[in-house]
Prior knowledge:
This protein is mainly α. The protein has a single domain (52-254, 280-514), classed as Growth Hormone, Chain: A (Up-down Bundle), CATH 1.20.1250.20. 73% of the residues lie in helices and 1% in strands. The chain is built from 19 helices and two strands. The chain has helices spanning 32-40, 52-74, 80-87, 91-119, 121-141, 145-173, 179-208, 211-230, 237-240, 279-286, 288-318, 323-328, 330-338, 340-358, 371-375, 378-405, 411-438, 443-472, 474-514, and strands at residues 5-6, 361-362. Strands 1-2 form a two-stranded parallel sheet. 54% of the residues are buried. Pfam families: MFS_1 (PF07690). GO terms for molecular function: transmembrane transporter activity.
Amino acid sequence: MTAPTSIETKSLPTEVEKKTPLQDDSSPSSDSSDDAKAAELFTSTPYTILSERAKIGTILLVATINASAFFAHTTYYPALNAISEDLNVSSGTMYLTITSYMIMQSIAPIVTGSLSDRRGRRPILFVCMMIYVIASIGLACQRNFVGLLLLRCLQSIGSSGTFTATFALVVDIIARSERGKYLAYVTMGSTIGTSTGPIIGGVLTDKLGWRSIFWFLTICSGVSLFLIVVVLRETCRAVVGNGTIPPPSWNKPLYFKKSATEPDYDTQTRFTKPPGILDCFKIFYKNQEVGLLIFCWSLMCWGQTVIEISLPVVLGKKYHLDSMNVGLCYIPWATGAITARWSVGSLGDWNFRRLGRNAGLVIQSNKQTKAQLRVLPLERIRLQIVLPAVYVACVFTIAYSWAAAIDVHIACPLVLLFFLGNAMMGTTNTLAALIGDLEAYKPGTVRGAMALFKCFPGAGVAAAINPAIASIGFGWFGTIISGFWVLASGILWFIYFHGQKWRAEIEERRKEIAK
Length: 515
């Protein structure tokens, strides 16, 4: 019986860079003998030099930035009626601001994703957060619908442009075996922003008026901008490698402690091509497996959008709730989503270690190499968690939609929202982890592709919510959404059984092209 192999990393691969035989075997020019050497070679080179405490601190900082960015999206919802009355426009016209916001959400990450992979995370976060601050001040002061619409688009560019950098930052410093729980921490920030935003928006609108929402967003984005300038370290592996390479002086936070470790340039990702807008689109035809996973992830996110946007309409009008109480209805949803870190996130990391042992590997903390991709059944590791969570989400979506449609006590749909939030966030987090596993060296670019496929069609979904509910009722609407998820699970089952083989064939084709 073969002894387990310890898998560690010596370097990071690139798109086209050629490596020496003792470097990581992820380059297109690597042959099978190099792969075997890399898999058997034991090195002490860590994936990142950051301590566990520093990693947690960085992740929590990113979660804070994520929360402030997502506040811009949802604090606005409870104020829709108040703004429409003040600006003298219809509710239907107000929904154009949501649709346009989501369209810009899909466009901004296309640009920021590829740039952040090559130029660094901090510059992208700084520029985007500065745009966010300026747009929020303008929104607080504008006095007509056109100004509202245009400034919301600008605010969307600033807030959504950060998504690629925050997702990629996790991939920069967290190895695959631990990525489930840490991604959950980052998405916990977005969940808090998404779910508590309506609560805060409702209270502010009720007590101080709707303009106070945008002053609140100005403060949040200003705090995030301060944290980026003062303490957020650069993590992009094209800039700092595993953290041993010092960044340029202009890309250092004000509080910067130089690493005492000798720079290890073998851990640096190098690109021979400049960043391009089309990089996000290329992922879909260069790696069809990742493209299908992004489609399934987006489909789950569209359903999540329906739940979040429709809640004021479905529960607010039915139970005659004011803006503040509508916001409070998001608490069960937020709580369920946050607890997905301890339920689904930890379960995913445990499953990674379990199937790693079954494959004859010793999965070590803060160590990884591309050799894992050929040995580990990554698709099975992640999808063994995702598929049950998808079906649980379907059950609770149907239950919630019909509970909200019929005459029951408000406690019933609120309890169902908790379990629905847990299942849906667990599903999307774990799918995102799998996508990050498969495109680990261009995380910003792949996150841009995810945003493109989620937000652009999602804008159409948002626009269709009110007409669909009026036409067929919320009960049948939720049932149809669950039906689409069940159909999409067929794609996930195909990837579950054939993904590893498919991935190997794609890798072979890439090697042939490289030759």
